Amino acid sequence: MAAVHESVLDAIGETPLFRLARLGAGLGAPVYAKAEFLNIGGSVKDRAALSMVLAAERDGLLRPGGTIIEATSGNTGIGLTIVGRQRGYRVIAGVSDKSAPEKADILRAYGAEVVLAPTGVPAEDPRHLFNVVQRLEEEIPGGWLANQYDNLANPDAHVRTTGPEIWEQTGGRLTHFVAGVGTGGTITGTGTFLKEVSGGAVTVVGADPESSMYGGGDGSPWYVESIGHFLHPETVEDRWPKAYREGVVDVFERIPDRESLLTARRLAREEGILAGPSSGTAVAAALRLAARLGPEDLVVVLLPDSGRSYLSKVHSDEWMRRWGFLEEDGQGLRPLLDAAGPLVTVPAGATAGEAARVLRAVPGGVAPVVLVRPSWPYGVCPAEVVGTVDREVLAAALADGSVKQDDPVGVVAGPPLPAVGVGCSREEARAELRDGWRSVLVLVDGRVAGVVAP
Fold first, then answer.
1. 39: closest CA among 12, 75, 65, 59?
2. Rg of the chain over CA atoms, in angstroms?
3. At 290, which helix (H) or strand (E)?
């Protein structure tokens, strides 16, 4: 018989395992998926939310009539809203401006007040989401900031629930556990339990976006929400979450965005599992791993959330094509891109004189101005393109003296060129031209790959 609960909070956890029979066909080891999207709020973060609220009440940090405040990409905020509203609290969710818009709508539907703030600015910037919610905690009487990144009740939820469930569901047979790393709470808590109960026999594998710093990437942006560690080029102090214990993870699988997103789409089409992009990252890592293992092994991969929160992104053909993740052979802007030659960019910290020297060899005389760390590749995320510099405009400004050789290039840079995916048609690209520009940025896998005149 189906379980009967007195509250939706009693339905958090006890999620099933599904074998990935189609995606895992022909691999050395079986792969089972822990369906965390079947939690009442649609994600694994329901577990952490309940754990953090109960701990705050127990410790006297959250009192009747209080306000729960949190910075979230969406899922933790949803969990906290469900738990908080059930227990009589006001909830304010600070949401990243890069999160899928569906998440803010879901938060409001559950009764949260939503505050949008950027995360693509330096950590010290007062506009940064984390600084915004910290000010709210200081300003609101009875406010409690959940702080999932540093709250140890986050990983504790998985030591007590997720880990034991997986061990029981597999009869202690699992040999490898795969999960993404966002706050680090899920992989730390679950991995800690599984290592202890197995006497160290279970291998814990972190699934990470290719450029995330957790797995050794350069910290440049990526397109999979809720996992990874990004470092803005102007951030002074890089802080890692206290909820993450680095020693729990034995090895990382670094997954490119395209592989993550296409795997998430395959989950829906081939396995009937509508999950989010971070599930695509985790499953891609699990499939790579299972291909190297044998029938005596058993892989469990955690699927953090539902794809219903990403219908406007990874599960939208238009969005995927717009950002250069889908293209048809012989179609779109690929021929123009191949003929354009290597991408040349101008760092935002360059002088006007340095930019002029770079532009001498640029066909068309137009280059994007990019905000980068020294270790980042030139093909950066469009969010880091901060302007455009035109050779003719720059030369004229230098000639008439309105711009000096040592002036920052920003004084003469125009707005960023419009960006279109490599799978878009020339007509679509032309429709984006504005501000007198004759060229567009072409995106491949979400990163600028070239400048073309459509």
1. 12
2. 24
3. helix 277-292
- Cβ atoms of 367 and 359 closer than 8 Å: yes
Nearest one of 128, 134, 69, 136 to 97, comparing CA atoms: 128
Supply 245's token pair: 């214990």
Q: What is the mean pLDDT of the chain?
A: 92
> 10 Å Cβ neighbour count for 272?
9
Following DSSP, what letter does each residue of 158-198 receive, concatenated? IIIIIHHHHHHHTTT---EEEEE-SSSHHHHHHHHHHHHHT
Position 166 scores a pLDDT of 98
Question: What phi, psi does 195 have (nearest 5°)?
Answer: -65, -45
189: nearest Cα among 9, 254, 213, 197 = 197
Cα separation of 283 and 303, whole Å? 8
- Determine the 3-state secondary structure of 307 from DSSP: helix
Q: Which two tokens stand for residue 366?
A: 């137009």
pTM > 0.90: yes or no: yes
- The residue whose two tokens read 């910037």 is 125
Contact criterion met (CB below 8 Å) for 287 and 293: no
Q: Answer yes or no: is pLDDT of 73 > 90.
A: no
Cα 166-276-169 angle, rounded to 5 deg: 10
CA distance linking residue 240 with residue 171, whole number of Å: 34
Whether 383 shows a pLDDT value over 60: the answer reads no
The first and second tokens of residue 160, run together, are 């007590």
pLDDT in tens, 136-161: 999 999 999 999 999 999 999 999 99
State the residue for tokens 């950027």.
118
pLDDT in tens, 15-46: 999 999 999 999 999 999 999 999 999 999 99
Catalytic residue among 34, 45, 103, 195: 45
pLDDT score of 379: 46
Q: Which residue has the tokens 């279970």?
A: 202
d(CA 136, CA 408): 36
Where b means 16+ CB within 10 Å and e means fewer, 1-27 reads: eeeeeeeebeebbebeebebeebbeeb
Q: What per-residue confidence (pLDDT) applies to 144?
A: 98
Indicate if 34 belongs to the active site.
no
Res 208 pLDDT > 90: yes
**Of 296, 212, 268, which Cα lies nearest the Cα of 33?**
268
Find out whether 383 and 120 touch, Cβ atoms under 8 Å.
Answer: yes
Between CA 394 and CA 400 the distance in angstroms is 10
Return d(Cα 70, Cα 370) in angstroms, integer.
Answer: 31
